[in-house]
Amino acid sequence: xxxxxxxxxxxxxxxxxxxxxxxxxxxxxxxxxxxxxxxxxxxxxxxxxxxxxxxxxxxxxxxxxxxxxxxxxxxxxxxxxxxxxxxxxxxxxxxxxxxxxxxxxxxxxxxxxxxxxxxxxxxxxxxxxxxxxxxxxxxxxxxxxxxxxxxxxxxxxxxxxxxxxxxxxxxxxxxxxxxxxxxxxxxxxxxxxxxxxxxxxxxxxxxxxxxxxxxxxxxxxxxxxxxxxxxxxxxxxxxxxxxxxxxxxxxxxxxxxxxxxxxxxxxx
Length: 268
Ligand SMILES: [Zn+2]
Known about the structure:
The chain is an alpha+beta fold.
């Protein structure tokens, strides 16, 4: 990468996900410290990631979980502001992974992420507006946001994240998928659990069914891990396609451009 020039949007996005090599992360950081234009660009990328989380519908939360989650998310120098919005004092929190609440309880997790991101960016966008272009502490803040955004994505999609789906007792766990889709950005996150295994020469394929009646669009291939969990994060989709529904089919391993019936999972 030639750091004499501005950093490409793609590299900034990778930087925000901490997906660059360590020396490249350092190079980007060094450039950001001296470049207001790239700082602004990075902030916009981070805000888009926040928008994604905000687009999730929010089911009601069980009492106490919202504060616990926010306290954990805000376990940084920002906890005071987060606690103000929660209208509660910070509460002692044990790490979520050992708390007994499965992160894979998809509706709640996505709702909590949405709340956490809303609080996080709500509190800091004004502050960032004022302080950007000034000194290095802003860069530290942006980097902290990048790390936080990565953590949120991880919580939703990591193979290590515990996936628990509650069903009516005595019923076997059913395959379930959850999509978060922001048509204006063509941004899609899909998380599924309790999936049946597929044959080695087959794959699941996710489809976006456009609202305008056009043909289903391929939206990513996925195979369940040993626990039946899988995710598709930000597949290549054009911007501005409203979705009527989503579906999942089983295709040959290389995937297909048109869905092969039957549709094994669907939702609209
Ligand atoms: Zn620059």
